[in-house]
């Protein structure tokens, strides 16, 4: 998380709100181009920059990516979202956007809840 000093809890809350408000539907600017979970949100350290100048290792989501997947082209797409280990990458291959977004929403809620409880316990 070296290159991203934003509060991860606040960013995850924003991502959750973003998804609950309609999320990753087609862009108005480029409706022919599908959107990408996490990459097409301010959650991404390279949001809005097609050159992707920042390595994904600088992204706050890298801490949720298993070590074995951190060198993937899009590491955040390999975060285990469900108890069965489904990820953005595996769920995208099913072409079921509602199922994908539902899994991301459930994961975000669980992580946010856990982080809030941990912060409360620390008195932060």
Distance N to C terminus: 20 Å
Summing up helix and strand content along with how strands pair, one would put the structural category as mainly alpha
Percent of sequence in beta strands:
under 5%
Number of strands: 0
How many helices does DSSP assign?
A: 3
Which radius of gyration do the C-alpha atoms yield?
14 Å
- Helical content stands at 25-40%
Output the helix-strand order. HHH
Q: Can you tell me the overall shape?
A: globular
* Biggest pleated sheet: none
Unreliably modeled segments? none
Mean pLDDT: 86
Task: Describe this entry's structure for a reader.
This protein is mainly α. Helix content is 35%, strand content 0%. It contains 3 helices and no strands. Helix 1 runs antiparallel to helix 3.
Describe how the helices and strands are arranged.
Elements lengths: L7 H13 L67 H5 L4 H26 L2
Brief characterization of the structure:
The protein is mainly α and 124 residues long. It has 3 helices and no strands. Helix 1 packs antiparallel against helix 3.
Keywords:
mainly alpha; 124 residues; single chain
């Amino acid at each position: 998380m070296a290159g991203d000093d934003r509060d991860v809890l606040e960013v995850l809350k924003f991502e959750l709100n973003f998804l609950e408000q309609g999320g990753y539907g087609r862009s108005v600017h480029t409706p022919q181009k599908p959107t990408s979970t996490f990459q097409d949100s301010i959650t991404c350290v390279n949001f809005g920059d097609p050159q992707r100048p920042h390595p994904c290792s600088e992204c706050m989501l890298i801490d949720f990516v298993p070590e074995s997947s951190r060198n993937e082209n899009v590491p955040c797409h390999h975060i285990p979202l469900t108890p069965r280990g489904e990820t953005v990458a595996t769920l995208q291959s099913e072409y079921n956007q509602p199922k994908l977004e539902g899994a991301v929403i459930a994961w975000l809620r669980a992580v946010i809840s856990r982080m809030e409880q941990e912060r409360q316990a620390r008195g932060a």
